[in-house]
Design goal:
Blueprint (H helix, E strand, L loop, with lengths): L2 H9 L4 H44 L7 H8 L7 E3 L5 E4 L4 E3 L9 H11 L11 H12 L11 H9 L7 H17 L2 H11 L1 E4 L5 E3 L1 H9 L8 H9 L4 H4 L14 H16 L5 H8 L14 H4 L1 H22 L4 H6 L1 H17 L3 E4 L3 H13 L7 E6 L6 E6 L1 E9 L5 E5 L23 H12 L8 E4 L17 E4 H6 L3 H11 L5 H6 L26 H12 L3 E3 L4 E5 L5 E4 L4 E3 L3 H17 L5 H4 L7 E6 L5 E7 L3 E9 L8 E2 L2 E2 H19 L1 H4 L11 E7 L8 H5 L3 E7 L11 E9 L2 E4 L10 E6 L1 H7 L4 H7 L10 E7 L14 E3 L2 E3 L8 E10 L6 E7 L5 E3 L5 E9 L11 E3 L41 E2 L1
Parallel strand pairs: 1-6, 3-5, 25-27, 26-27
Antiparallel strand pairs: 1-2, 4-5, 6-14, 7-8, 9-10, 9-19, 11-12, 13-16, 14-15, 17-18, 18-19, 20-21, 22-23, 24-25, 24-26, 28-29, 29-32, 30-31, 30-33, 32-35, 33-34
Helix pairs in contact: 4-10, 4-12, 6-7, 6-8, 10-12, 12-13, 15-17, 18-26, 19-21, 19-24
Length: about 950
């Protein structure tokens, strides 16, 4: 081999020694790398095992959740309950800590979905619940305490955190979040997950300053649109809110005022728009246009909440809905409604649960309230100008504890109820909810005055067969420990039950009630829904006049009147028609229940009596106030000392009643702006019904009238006793006619009247004694003394004041049933004789056996007195005489015919006892025989006599 070849071989890369060395190095390095790789893999596996073990230790207590469990958890979010007027007209939301309204994904704008995905989870449609890279990045940032924390939660994980876990920052919570997110993705479709997220996410506040959650509440509460109608910039703004709901929200918590600076929220919106653009969800043109959107200019204005617009109604619905749900929850646990009502602690427990349930579970509460009628009635209440003056009232200042004086206005309550169903069509809760949070229609208890009379007195009395509309009652002062008086203080004599109710006489009602008190008439009130009766009420006669221990609500009082319109059947009033769960399932549906209280005959007779109240009684002014006509029957009522004014009326379709008074009971002004307190209330009643008629005339003013049931007849009766009229009763004009329940028509002919002779002494009639001068014996119709005793009338004068104006003669008397006897003494002289014009009068003689008086007269120029008149003691003690001059005196005549000495003489005209003497004329000169007149004989002057007196 040449040196050249040897040199080339020595320095050739393929030198065997070199190659061998390289091979050894490669093998060593390769083995080392393999060793490190193996060690690394072992380390990774070890670390992974440790990590896996640690992960397993973190989630070992987390139960394996089923699909049903996870579904219940995911969809278990608070949703605001909604209220609806009748016919599914939306009213508003119930008060809640956070407002939320569930919405389906198909009803959400695609821009919102794209904005949320682009901002919160760009790999949402690709991952299976978690993104490992994001988790590793988040862990690295956590361990290195990096200043920038990007987070690693997918939308699925955020949903898990919000609905199942908590916001606690810990590896334990994060591990469970990852595990549950992976499991959730196996059970749910992507659309289900994002739909749930959009319904649970917090979005700050709405324009009313209320906390909101869910995209539907956000869309309505921020921009005033539905979630499906959100534009690109609106969607971007809302999608950016969950990162910092109260930092980015445009509204403050001070009633929803718009913040001075909206930059944080707008900058966040721009970030969302940028990600939507880079993610390919919007075009460049859409992106640039969206950046120019004026958020402030497009914010929705503050909208009055249902509580602000309808405070009385909203709180009433809330209260009744809680009661309904309370019973439902208790029944699930095995309790009955009766057990709940009897146990205060149990009731408080379930009421609290029901309250929470109502505010969280998004119920749909459908009421019976007609929106148009309700709205118009509130307008009438606001505009009415005849309530009366405000009055001062001392109250304690809640802030200072000092006693201050405030001006208290007249308040009002009213309820309109459909008779056959019990639906509360509308109500008036008061004039100002903010002044006094009291519903005067459903919660305020007040004595119901004379509106009690049909309910507790006349209808029960007729049902028990104790009275009928024509029953005769003596309206005279009562005896005993309780002595009620009529309005105005007067009395009205013998009257019928119909007339007594028509004019609201108290005494006849009290007498009627006391006759049936031992038959438990209060039970009729119980059957008609009176729920505030006390033990004391059962034993007080004044309950008949509405003097209740606690009082009654307007709702219950009006509801009871519907019993008469329903032919004696009570149908309980209600306000909630049904309650639906958020998924549409009906959890409550009102069911009508009837309770028979009175017969159809009693109900109709009571209605017919109350018709007269409106035709010509205490509510007659209503006819000029109403703008329509209907077959109304009703009753007015006044509280003690004029503290309450009521009017309740019913027609074949509806019942309506109003009350006015002060919250702190005090007298209403009896006259204000020229109107009495009662007329002011009736006018308000009419105005409220007039607007209801404008909305629904068919409901408020039915063309049909109350139908008279079988078993009612019309009969004539004697107004003295209520029995069938006799011939004498007819002759006296004491016959009247009325309706009767055929079971209780009078069967006995009145025998209280007879015709005969009698004499009067001291306003009492007696049998005629043999010694009585015939001139004082009278003949006429006599009434048995038993009639006086029956009606507690003490004398004939009282009886005469009680007789109806139709009586055709004034000498109807009650005989004592015995003869009057002479007292053995001569009558005393009559005193007080006087003359006025052509009338002579005198005082009654004080003796106890005087039958009458004789009047004697002497003509002018004479002292020869002759009897010219006889006047029975029962008549007016005066006579009318002629105008001719004469002298008169009066004597009293007793039962034996003895006269008193003459009274003092009174004169009429220029009376003289003797004729004046006339001087003879001077004797004339002797006339011639031819001129002397013939002799004339002077005759006796004619004696004048007084004109024949006429007895008055």
């Amino acid at each position: 081999m040449s040196k050249k070849d040897e040199k080339q071989r020595r320095f050739s890369p393929f030198n065997k020694d070199i190659a061998k060395g390289l091979r050894i190095s490669y093998n060593v390095i390769g083995n080392l790398l393999l060793l490190f790789l193996i060690i690394g893999l072992i380390g990774i596996c070890f670390a992974g095992g440790v990590g896996a073990g640690y992960f397993a230790s973190l989630v070992k207590d987390e139960p394996i959740r089923s699909y049903e469990n996870m579904r219940n958890d995911i969809y278990n979010y608070e949703e605001t309950s909604l209220i609806y007027f009748d016919e599914n007209v939306y009213l508003g939301k119930l008060n809640a800590d956070i407002e939320r309204e569930e919405v389906k994904l198909e009803n959400v704008s695609k821009h919102v979905i794209n904005a949320v995905v682009a901002t919160e989870d760009e790999l949402f449609y690709e991952h299976h619940g978690v993104v490992p890279k994001a988790i590793m990045r988040a862990l690295f940032q956590e361990f290195t305490n990096a200043s920038v924390q990007t987070g690693g939660s997918t939308l699925t994980q955020q949903l898990i955190k919000n609905q199942i876990l908590t916001n606690e920052v810990s590896f334990d919570r994060k591990a469970k979040e990852i595990l549950l997110a992976l499991r959730l993705e196996k059970f749910f479709e992507k659309d289900e997950i994002i739909e749930a997220y959009l319904n649970v996410a917090d979005f700050g506040r709405n324009s009313n300053g209320k906390n909101i959650a869910g995209v539907q509440a956000a869309a309505k509460g921020i921009f005033g649109v539905e979630a499906k109608d959100l534009s690109i910039p609106q969607a971007a703004f809302i999608a950016g809110l969950p990162q910092s709901p109260f930092g980015y929200t445009p509204f403050s918590n001070d009633g929803g005022a718009v913040k001075e600076s909206l930059e944080p929220g707008i900058n966040r919106m721009k970030t969302v728009l940028s990600r939507m653009y880079t993610g390919g969800f919007i075009t460049k043109e859409e992106y640039e246009e969206a950046l120019t959107y004026d958020i402030r200019a497009n914010l929705t204005p503050k909208k009055p909440s249902s509580i602000e617009r309808y405070p009385y109604l909203t709180y009433e619905v809330e209260d009744r809905a809680i009661d309904i749900i309370m019973v439902k929850l208790a029944e699930k646990d095995g309790y009955t409604e009766e057990e709940i009502k009897k146990d205060d602690d149990l009731q408080a427990q379930y009421r609290s649960l029901a309250d929470k349930d109502l505010r969280q579970n998004g119920y749909r509460i459908h009421t019976t309230i007609n929106k148009e009628i309700y709205d118009k009635m509130q307008e009438v209440v606001d505009e009415y100008g005849y309530y009366g003056s405000d009055k001062p009232e001392k109250v304690k200042d809640p802030d200072t504890g000092e006693t201050i004086t405030v001006q208290e206005p007249v308040e009002v309550g009213g309820v309109l109820i459909e008779n056959t169903t019990g639906k509360i069509i509308s109500f008036v809760g008061g004039r100002d909810f903010n002044r006094e949070n009291l519903n005067h229609a459903t919660d305020a208890l007040r004595p119901n005055g004379s509106t009690m009379k049909p309910l507790l007195v006349y209808a029960p009395s007729m049902e028990l067969g104790k009275s009928q509309p024509g029953t005769v009652i003596a309206d005279v002062p009562m005896t005993g420990s309780w002595k009620p008086k009529n309005y105005g203080g007067g009395y009205h004599g013998l009257t019928s039950a119909r007339t007594a109710l028509k004019y609201s006489y108290n005494v006849p009602a009290a007498k009627t009630y006391m006759e049936i008190m031992n038959q438990n008439p209060v039970s009729y009130l119980e059957k008609m829904g009176f729920s505030t009766l006390t033990e004391e009420d059962y034993g007080i006669a004044s309950l008949s006049l509405g003097a209740m221990t606690k009082g009654v609500t307007v709702e219950e009082n009006v509801n009871a009147y519907g019993t008469f319109a329903n032919q004696g059947k009570f149908v309980d009033a209600y306000l909630i028609e049904k309650i639906e769960a958020s998924n549409g399932d009906v959890i409550f549906q009102h069911e009508k229940v009837e309770n028979e209280v009175f017969s159809a005959q009693t109900a109709y007779l009571t209605l017919d009596m109350m018709r007269d109240v409106i035709r010509s009684g205490t509510a007659a002014s209503l006819n000029s106030y109403l703008s329509f006509s209907a077959d109304w029957a009703g009753k007015t009522g006044t509280g003690q000392d004029y503290r309450d004014a009521w009017f309740v009326a019913t027609n074949p379709n509806v019942s309506f009643g109003t009350w006015i008074g002060y919250d702190t009971p005090k007298p209403l002004e009896q006259n204000y702006k020229g109107m009495s307190y009662s007329k002011r209330n009736i006018l308000l009643w009419a105005k409220l019904m007039n607007v209801a008629y404008e909305v629904n005339p068919e409901l408020v003013a039915p063309k049909n009238r109350f139908e008279m049931p079988g078993g009612i007849v019309r009969r004539s009766y004697c107004a003295l006793t209520g029995e069938l009229p006799s011939a004498l009763c007819r002759e006296a004009g004491l016959v009247t006619t009325d309706l009767f329940n055929a079971k209780y028509v009078p069967t006995k002919v009145d025998d209280s009247l007879t015709r005969g002779k009698y004499v009067f002494v001291k306003d009492r009639a007696y049998k005629v004694p043999s010694t009585a001068p015939s001139e004082f014996v009278q003949e006429g119709v006599m009434l048995k003394k038993e009639i006086l005793d029956k009606h507690n009338i003490s004398n004939v004068s009282d009886l005469k004041r009680l007789l109806p104006n139709t009586v055709k003669w004034g000498n109807l008397v009650v005989t004592e049933g015995k003869e009057i006897t002479d007292n053995g003494a001569s009558p005393s002289q009559v005193s007080g004789v006087s003359a006025s014009g052509t009338r002579i009068s005198w005082r009654a003689n004080g003796d106890n056996d005087i039958l009458g008086y004789r009047v004697y007269a002497a003509a002018n120029f004479s002292t020869n007195f002759k009897k010219v008149a006889s006047v029975p003691a029962s008549n007016s003690l005066s006579v009318t005489v002629g105008s001719n001059p004469a002298a008169y005196y009066v004597v009293a005549v007793d039962v034996a015919g003895h006269e008193s000495v003459p009274s003092s003489i009174v004169k009429i005209g220029d009376y003289a006892e003797e004729k004046p003497k006339v001087e003879p004329p001077p004797k004339p000169e002797e006339p011639n025989e031819e001129t002397q007149p013939a002799e004339q004989t002077e005759g006796e002057p004619e004696t004048p006599s007084p004109s024949e007196p006429v007895t008055e």
